[in-house]
């Protein structure tokens, strides 16, 4: 498993579907110019895309008490940027099929992690900077894409057993990835997004994810915010006391209120536990 082979596999990823490309064209014009009615129409023209957006929008982690029953309702409640995140999450899941068992859990749990990261960021940071939260929450939903690339590569090599054991023992996921392939999954996410011509700002943020002191102050701030989220919710821990405490320590360094974050984290965790119980009862 080499970085060269991984890059080749990314370069060979199939292009996005016509509906997704049409959506990208709409967003490329800028949020101010985006035709919401056309956006809803494009989404509704793809039945699977519509169903997946409604499924993600109705996740209890986002905190809505009533069920969202239409794409237009989802756009109204979440805003166009978060819906963009839902769209790209669907696109990623369609184009990158991976067995996340190499990380020690199912694809469903992987998707839960992505949803919780996004929901936590949106609910917490919107109280500090609403515009930044709306911009970053969609990225939080899809930033773990690179881990799917790694999972795919591991599954086609004879290294799977060693990887599983090494991942289990590792204390820092990004450090383990770097030792393994010379880069991190966030850098791979950046490469995937570049391949699909996604938002250039998202590409830059992920490219700099492990460099928090970037000369661009906005990029540096965004990276630190995302690191707070990843410290609390990641492939090894979902809002445990230890992981939330680690995030709170980062927040103190940033001069932000750790108690406010911890309160939102607890609310999101309760919603997730409730959702797991519903799934178990329905199975």
The CATH architecture comes to: Orthogonal Bundle
Q: Low-confidence runs (pLDDT<50, min 5 residues)?
A: none
CATH class: Mainly Alpha
**Tally of contiguous helical segments:** 16
Strand content: under 5%
Roughly how many Å is the radius of gyration? Answer: 18 Å
CATH superfamily: Hypothetical protein af1432
What key attributes describe this structure?
single chain, 283 residues
Textual characterization of the structure:
The protein has 16 helices and no strands. It is globular. The longest helix has 25 residues, at 258-282. The chain has one domain: Hypothetical protein af1432 (Orthogonal Bundle). With 283 residues, it is an all-alpha fold. The mean pLDDT is 91. 71% of the residues lie in helices and 0% in strands. It has helices at 3-11, 18-28, 36-44, 47-57, 71-78, 80-95, 107-125, 130-142, 145-155, 160-169, 173-181, 185-195, 200-207, 217-232, 241-254, 258-282.
């Amino acid at each position: 498993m080499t970085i060269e082979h991984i890059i080749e596999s990314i370069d060979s990823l199939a292009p996005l579907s016509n509906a997704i490309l049409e959506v990208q064209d709409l967003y490329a014009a800028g949020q101010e110019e985006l035709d919401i009615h056309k956006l809803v129409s494009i989404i509704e023209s793809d039945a699977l895309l519509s169903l997946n957006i409604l499924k993600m929008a109705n996740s209890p982690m986002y905190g809505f008490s009533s069920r969202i029953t239409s794409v237009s309702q989802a756009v109204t409640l979440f805003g166009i940027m978060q819906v963009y995140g839902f769209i790209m999450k669907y696109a990623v899941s369609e184009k990158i099929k991976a067995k996340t068992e190499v990380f020690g859990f199912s694809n469903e749990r992987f998707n839960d992690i992505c949803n919780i990261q996004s929901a936590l960021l949106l609910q917490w940071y919107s109280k500090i900077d609403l515009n930044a939260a709306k911009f970053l929450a969609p990225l939080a939903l899809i930033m773990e894409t690179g881990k799917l690339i790694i999972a795919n590569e591991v599954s086609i090599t004879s290294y799977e057993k060693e990887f599983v054991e090494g991942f289990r023992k590792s204390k820092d996921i990004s450090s383990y990835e770097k030792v393994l392939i010379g880069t991190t999954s966030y850098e791979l996410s950046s490469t995937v997004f570049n391949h699909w011509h996604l938002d250039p700002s998202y590409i830059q943020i992920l490219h700099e994810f492990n460099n928090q002191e970037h000369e661009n102050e906005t990029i540096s701030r965004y990276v630190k915010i995302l690191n707070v989220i990843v410290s609390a919710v990641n492939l090894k821990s979902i809002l445990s006391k230890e992981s939330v405490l680690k995030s709170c320590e980062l927040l103190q360094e940033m001069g932000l209120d750790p108690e406010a974050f911890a309160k939102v984290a607890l609310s999101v965790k309760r919603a997730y536990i409730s959702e797991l119980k519903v799934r178990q009862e329905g199975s």
